[in-house]
Amino acid sequence: MKKAVIVSWLCVLLMLPTCWVSVAQAGYEKQQALIDRATITFKSFVADPNMTWFRNHLSSAKGLLIIPQLLKGAFIFGAEGGTGVLIARDQYTGKWSQPAFYTVGSVSFGLQAGAQSSQIILMIMTDSGLDALLSTSIKLGADVSIAAGPYGAGAKAETVDILAFSKTKGIFGGISIEGAIITPKDSWNIAYYRKNVRPVDIIIRRMVSNPYSEKLIQAVSQATVAASVAKSAPPK
To answer: Of 220, 105, 123, 128, which is closest to residue 165 (Cα–Cα)?
Structure first.
């Protein structure tokens, strides 16, 4: 019996390198690395005691744009940019979609200097906010309304399309993403799903899937279920 168990585990261990090689050979290792970092980022937000509102209202979100790293640097001119993944929840089944890849960037001018690295999750709260993200490109604060997400217990959000939650390191201090341009990263979507797909095909029509995104979807699904249970529980 013990011998059979050992042989089984050896088979599993021998198969693992093959799985990673298949990802690399498929040509979407960069996309997979981003999804893996997005999974880690999401889990860290859920576990953060300061993200109570975020954690408790996942079941109310239409979608999430997870940006594991948004970089900002400036000396007179300022620029920031990053890459993220968008997933959305089906309004009928409650199931989360496969991820679609996006870029985020903006340019500013003024008396500024420094550097900053942020982890950001945009919580899409309205259908119009999600619809806008499925278009060619949008400007936050112009095409959709955006506000900083509330922290702590008992906070209430304004009626806006998107709430921005962030963790920031750098001498700029806080993060302001208003004015940023969000654009689908079509080349990455095509590479990851091996089809000429747009975000609407991935998020709404659900025409494609990639099994390597399962960890991200599972993490978000579990946290959403926990939020639903917490909301339906009777008050203490």
So the answer is: 123
* Alpha helices by DSSP H, 27-57: 29-47, 52-56
**Residue whose entry in the numeric block shows the structure tokens 């690295």:** 117
| pLDDT-based confidence at residue 81 (cuts at 50, 70, 90) | confident
pTM for this predicted structure: 0.80
pLDDT tens per residue across span 126-155: 999 999 999 889 999 899 999 888 865 555
Q: Which residues of 143-174 are buried (b: 16+ CB within 10 A; e: fewer)?
A: bbbbbbbbeeeeeeeeebbbbbbbbeeeebee
Backbone angles phi, psi at 144, to 5 degrees: -140, 150
* Cα dihedral sign, 215-56-50-167: positive
